[in-house]
Specification:
Helix content is about 65%, strand content about 5%. It has about 550 residues and is of the alpha/beta class.
Length: about 550
């Protein structure tokens, strides 16, 4: 190669590296600034559940004793760490997840760079950063963020193992994937992906040795299961293993069978309308990346990785066929990596029509920036917000998340630290905010309304707990999604409440949410107020 051509090529490479570095720093910085502006957003229900369970753990109370749910205990432990390090506020929780999210961005950069080079690494990182803060996927501190925080570096370590054959990489990769499962059951899909990847890489090495693979499989299986086994031992020692097993496996088995295939398909269609349009250009690049192995030699070497990653990522969002928006956080790593592959495919294709070396090197930079800007622009009204209540409304409409902050403040100011409270609905964040323990372990009332065999038994257990603990405050909630009864739901607990509450409590507060007027009215007094809204929360105090 002539010296002047070599010099021109080196200059073009340097220009591309500089622009990619600038793009990475600038776009990631913007998304971090947006997350900082969102820190004080009120907690939603799942966040409230994790925060309350984490708060209890810091007080020495194990999961599944004062707070029942089918989530795995790893997320509660993770929240406990965040609360211990940063404090017990919603801002502290969201700051902890900001750090978590930033680390995941770096992991995805390393993953895509390993597969397709530096430009792909930058693309995957900035695409994940902008999609993971979208209101369309209910960007919160949900368990899905914690699953991928452990799963992505776990996959990276498995990739390092297949290259280096160092067992330490296999062990730690398996451990991280095992911990991902402890964050939420959906993480099991990434354990299966890890097994598939190891099997696929083993078949690439000739001759195939089943003895070697059996050894790798045993090591991988043992260390993915080890975190779960240790957790089971801890829960058994704490005396809550039976409750843990019931909620996370027996009840969960019924829960995932509640949705019909027809309804599940409808849920899937609805979810796609939520999660695709705001990042339409990134999805286009992702599907280009999925197909580009047909014509692009560099990508074809990793086509099976992309296809398998897609399959198992989709598997991770399907349990129960609910396809809730925040489940798609588990899908974002595939979307980002595959879109990065699409960028590389176009980078290799377009130079056929571009002669200048400098212009060729600009192609991936411009493609990345264009896709990122489309995603940002489609959410501009949301991303420019800084008011916590408005941000909550963007994410969740008029669900009572901002209102529960003020209700909890009232309860905290008018009760002692040893007083207990009961929330007759599904707003566990009230327990966390008020720093008061629940008079019942049923921090959600959804299971009581579901058509599953334990519903009536659960209602009777909740009633018995409340009557035994005599909570000082009783918060009754009638809002969208706080009960969700279905035809055939057991009504026993409502009949009990109609008699128990008037006999033992007096109304001290009423919060009404007027969706059509986009306002909330708070009334704090002991005089019963006529309800004028369909969505309301009543606060009762126990009679002397």
């Amino acid at each position: 190669m002539p010296a002047n051509v070599q010099k021109s090529s080196d200059s073009s490479d340097s220009l591309q590296k500089f622009l990619l570095a600038f793009l990475f720093i600038a776009l990631i910085s913007i998304t971090i600034i947006i997350r900082i502006r969102f820190l004080s957003t009120p907690l939603e229900r799942d966040e409230g559940e994790y925060a309350y369970a984490g708060q209890l753990m810091l007080q020495g109370i194990p999961p599944y004793s004062l707070a029942y749910n089918m989530k795995m205990p790893g997320i509660y432990a993770a929240y406990a760490v965040i609360l211990a390090v940063f404090g017990q506020t919603q801002s502290a929780i969201h700051f902890g997840v900001l750090i978590l999210n930033t680390a995941t961005i770096v992991f995805l950069f390393l993953l895509a760079k390993r597969l397709f080079g530096p430009a792909a690494g930058v693309a995957a990182a900035v695409f994940f950063a902008i999609t993971s803060i979208s209101s369309r996927i209910e960007a919160t501190a949900n368990a899905e963020n914690f699953v991928i925080f452990f799963a992505i570096p776990g996959i990276l370590l498995l990739m390092k193992f297949t290259d280096s054959r160092k067992i330490i990489n296999l062990i730690f990769g398996a451990l991280l994937l095992g911990i991902a499962f402890l964050m939420k059951q959906h993480g099991a899909a990434f354990i299966l992906f890890g097994f598939f990847y190891l099997l696929y890489k083993h078949f690439q090495n000739k001759p195939v040795s089943w003895k070697k693979f059996s050894f790798v499989f045993l090591i991988y299986s043992f260390f993915t299961v080890l975190p779960f086994l240790i957790t089971c031992l801890i829960l058994w020692y704490c005396g809550v293993f039976e409750k843990f097993w019931f909620w996370t496996f027996e009840y969960a088995r019924h829960y995932v069978g509640l949705t019909s295939i027809k309804q599940g398909f409808a849920n899937f269609q609805t979810s796609l309308k939520m999660v695709v349009p705001f990042a339409f250009s990134i999805w286009l690049f992702a599907f280009a990346g999925l197909l580009s192995g047909i014509w692009n030699r560099q990508i074809s070497k990793h086509s099976l990785f992309i296809i398998a990653f897609l399959f198992f990522s989709f598997l991770s969002v399907t349990p129960g066929l609910y396809f809730r928006p925040h489940y798609y956080v588990l899908f974002l790593p595939w979307l980002s990596v595959s879109a990065a592959a699409g960028i590389i495919a176009f980078q290799d294709l377009l130079p056929k029509f571009v002669k200048s070396d400098n212009k060729k090197k600009l192609i991936p930079v411009l493609l990345i920036l264009t896709a990122w800007l489309q995603c940002f622009y489609s959410q501009r009204h949301y991303l420019k917000q800084s008011d916590p209540e408005i941000i909550s409304r963007f994410n969740f409409g008029f669900l009572p998340f901002p209102e529960t902050l003020k209700i909890a403040k009232y309860i905290k100011e008018n009760s002692g630290k040893d007083d207990k409270i009961a929330v007759f609905g599904s707003e566990p964040q009230i327990y966390f905010y008020s720093q008061r323990r629940s008079a019942t372990s049923f921090i959600y009332t959804y299971p009581l309304m579901e058509k599953q065999p334990y519903a009536l038994e659960m209602q009777k257990e909740m009633i018995a707990q409340i009557e035994k603990n005599e909570p000082k405050f009783f918060v009754v909630i009638k809002t969208v999604d706080s009960w969700t009864p279905v035809p055939g739901s057991e009504r026993y607990i409502f009949e009990w409440a109609d008699n128990y509450i008037p006999a033992n409590y007096q109304q001290v507060g009423l919060v009404e949410i007027f969706k059509d007027q986009q306002r909330t009215v708070y009334r704090w007094d002991s005089i019963a107020q006529p309800v004028q809204s369909e969505n309301w929360l009543m606060i009762f105090e126990r009679k002397n």
